[in-house]
């Protein structure tokens, strides 16, 4: 029995350092997840159009005159003039009361190496005060790039992921009704020239996150796989690669290059604070130094009650409802609490949880710790 206990104790002592070594080792990633090839990029497209066929949920044209103007211009291009109605006593174009038409903005992303005739998805968003785009059809809308040229034409039925109903002042809605999507709703009409390699097959890779250590590791991995001198670092983000000059061989070269396993360097210590949602995220490199923290909560409570004043009999007075408010101001005592130093993420979380602060208060505490030099990390507020 004693021998078995000693053996189990020895195994435990051997396994703990092994687990610590595995936890501290960085995970290898594919090169395609760390870099992007210069010149291979998406291009945003945007257009303005009309959605028709809505079930009374379109724009209120008296409040959105651009919808009426757009419809009038579209009908004029189709040979239909609305100005003749004024001479015959009818309603003019500016007095049209339309409920099944909505002005929208159409956005799409033109992927690299896209060719004319290919279909891409588009997103349709209401520009006016339309209640819903469900059941609508987008009329042919040209999509332009940053240079003002038309690169795609969009048209089709809109798929809206939300649902809703309203009656007698009550309304129920799920998700967003003023935006939808058309799968394959745009046809590419013009391609964007994409030049990956320069003369002699020279191309450049750009790291997603600038890091000198990771750059050096990528260069070493590429040179070990394809030979010395294939990759040369230009700075902490850009790497120059000598690929085959033959375009037919460049595809096979890029396929092998992107699948190389590289062990990236450990990221810089960083704490992300989301002021809108109160979320706090920190990576494993964050450390704490010993410090003392005192944080008191200030709360204001306002209670409002309605008091009914009833007049005396035969006084010809009227019953009056008067609101009365009571305000209470409370401030909790903030005693100094010792925050112990933490060398890893688990110790940092344990030390911060010991303060018992809410996420909103913890944001202020972390900023004060950073100013005092006790928080060894970069604070980023989004």
UniProtKB/TrEMBL annotation:
Localization, per the record, is: Bacterial flagellum basal body
A UniProt-annotated Pfam family: FlgI
Question: What this chain does, per the record?
Answer: Assembles around the rod to form the L-ring and probably protects the motor/basal body from shearing forces during rotation.
Q: State the organism named in the record.
A: Trinickia fusca
Q: What protein name applies here? A: Flagellar P-ring protein
Q: From the UniProt record, list the coiled-coil ranges.
A: none
Q: Which UniProt keywords apply?
A: Bacterial flagellum, Cell projection, Cilium, Flagellum, Signal
Q: In its UniProt record, which GO terms are filed under biological process?
A: bacterial-type flagellum-dependent cell motility
Listed HAMAP family: FlgI
